[in-house]
Task: structure prediction
Amino acid sequence: MPAAAGPVNILRGIDLDIPDGEAVGIVGPSGSGKTSLLMVLAGLERATSGTIRIAGQDIAGFNEDALARLRRDTIGIVFQAFHLIPTMTALENVSVPLELAGRRDAGARARAALESVGLGHRLTHLPGQLSGGEQQRVALARAFAPEPRLLLADEPTGNLDQATGDSVMDLLFRLRARAGTTLLLITHDAQLAARCSRRIHLADGRVVEIEGGIPGAAPVAGSLA
Result:
């Protein structure tokens, strides 16, 4: 990956196929490359070499506009920090990306997404008026509302207490199963990773172990040199 001081070899020799519709846990110690892998797959960071194929498209040569369209149309992202716009209501936070995508039913779709995460009564509340768990539910609604083929989740319960985090993850897995969305979940929680059909263990930027998997499924992601 490029940096001001020159290339930094964070990810090395990774070769992965993630089947469409699979839930995959990405686990490993701090500094192992988990978040870097997610950022590269989302097109938020550039790999210096290798092939990255998302939904049949090799994104390595995409310019920034093409990457933005890919995220808009194909990828949902949920981070540890909620990244909600503080001056917008819950409904507006979910509606904005839909409006930017040209969805004429953006408002109705956003309302339905918030109702699906149990926040139909919080539509007009600002993020500062919501609890941490409620803010992450808004973030989930925003991620799932465009019906992405791929959801990238980076420690989505990291800012929540155990009970609230468990509730949010139950919701995430229900939404994923209902939509058939491919999930890449970064987590330090072994029990949470065990809910995925496959666990990919990283260390020092390399895959060191793969547990589980769905045989015979069509891949949606490729390799990094």
Remarks:
- The first helix runs from residue 34 to 41.
- The longest strand covers residues 206-212.
